[in-house]
Design a protein that fits this description.
15 strands; four-stranded mixed β-sheet; alpha+beta; 362 residues; three-stranded mixed β-sheet
Length: 362
């Protein structure tokens, strides 16, 4: 059977080393093997070994016990350093900390995440929704304590309310006391002898509830809203979790949204673009008038200030940008064709003419 290393060997010092020598050895090895500075995968385990050895050998009483009982390197049947650390620090081993007494049953409830579909207009101007949510709510029969009415949780009879149980263990170093969380109460120090018949002792029941959610004006697709305290109820009086609402906004068949600005395309006739006109179109909140100047070219952009989406949680709105698209007629009546031919004559245009090229403008 292999044996664990001697603690003096772990620190690289002689058995009769002074306390100062042990401290210096520990500091040197701790700097060398600390996981934050040493990328070797085994560094963290080595660091724990060094720290555990120092914790024992730096304490006069523990060192005396270790020296009196004999080291693992002297042939005692101990196969791992963790066995030594358990003897001095309990079943949690080195770093597990001292006993802190029973844990509280109180625990915060979990969060809930849901999806909410919005129309384009609802996302722009805001809306109130009552969301149907499945959540764990406080049991009304036991008021959340898990015990049948007329009874109450009692001190755990296994650990006497301490939240942990202790046991005697014989080892090569003698008889040691170890401790571990109580399995009956889960470390809480309380048990429920008469569980509530409605929630079976859990203190919570699943229930479908309506949660009012105010969607502010100006939200956009993919945003997430948090409704504090609307998640699952806490355990044993703990606070409730939160409700997270992911917003999914539909696209508009007319407008393209970029932030709080809107973009659209308006078809105008050749005569409207040539002579100029005022064209009435449907805006985000009702009819809007787009003024087409005489001689307007296709691709001209007209900006309607403040006709876009309201800014989120602040004053003001984005703008509406209208791109004019001059539509060339393709199916002329005889009368229209005569008029266009007459117009061509007035402009001195012929059916076949020499074209004039010009450099594109940037």
């Amino acid at each position: 059977m292999s044996t664990a290393r001697d603690l003096y060997e772990v620190l690289g010092v002689e058995r009769g080393a002074s306390g100062e020598d042990i401290k210096k050895a520990y500091r040197r090895l701790a700097r060398e093997h600390h996981p934050d500075v040493n990328g070797d995968p085994t560094a963290e385990e080595r660091f724990k070994e060094v720290a555990g050895a120092y914790e024992i050998l730096s304490d006069a009483s523990r060192r005396a016990r270790y020296d009196a009982m004999g080291s693992a390197g002297a042939g005692q049947p101990i196969t791992d350093l963790s066995d030594i650390f358990e003897m001095f620090f309990g079943s949690g081993g080195f770093g597990a900390g001292r006993s802190r007494g029973p844990r509280s049953r109180m625990r915060e409830g979990d969060d809930i995440a849901v999806r909410l579909d919005l129309t384009f207009e609802d996302a722009a101007f805001g809306v109130r929704h009552d969301l149907a949510v499945e959540r764990l709510a406080v049991c009304e029969r036991c008021i959340g304590n898990g015990a049948e009415p007329g009874t109450a949780p009692i001190s755990c009879r296994t650990c006497n309310g301490r939240g942990e149980v202790q046991a005697m263990r014989r080892s090569v170093f003698g008889t040691l006391m170890t401790s571990a969380p109580c399995q009956t109460c889960g470390g809480a120090g309380q048990e429920i002898p008469d569980p509530c018949s409605a929630c079976l002792g859990h203190g919570r029941v699943r229930r479908r509830v309506e949660v009012p959610v105010e969607i502010p004006a100006g939200v956009s697709d993919g945003m997430e809203l948090r409704v504090q305290g609307a998640g699952h109820a806490g355990v044993a009086g703990g606070p409730s979790g939160d409700l997270f609402v992911r917003l999914v906004a539909e696209d508009s068949p007319v407008f393209e949204r970029r932030g709080q600005d809107l973009f659209t395309v308006l078809d105008v006739t050749v005569t409207q673009a040539t002579l100029g006109s005022a064209v009435q179109v449907d805006g985000l909140e009702g009819p809007e008038t787009v003024k087409v100047e005489p001689g307007t070219e296709s691709g001209t952009v007209i900006r309607l200030s403040g006709r876009g989406v309201p800014n989120l949680q602040r004053r003001g709105r984005g703008d509406l940008f209208v791109t004019l698209h001059v539509v060339t007629p393709s199916d002329l009546s005889k009368e229209e064709r005569v008029l266009y031919e007459r117009l061509a004559e007035l402009h001195g245009e012929r059916r076949q003419v020499a074209g004039t090229l010009r450099r594109p403008s940037h």
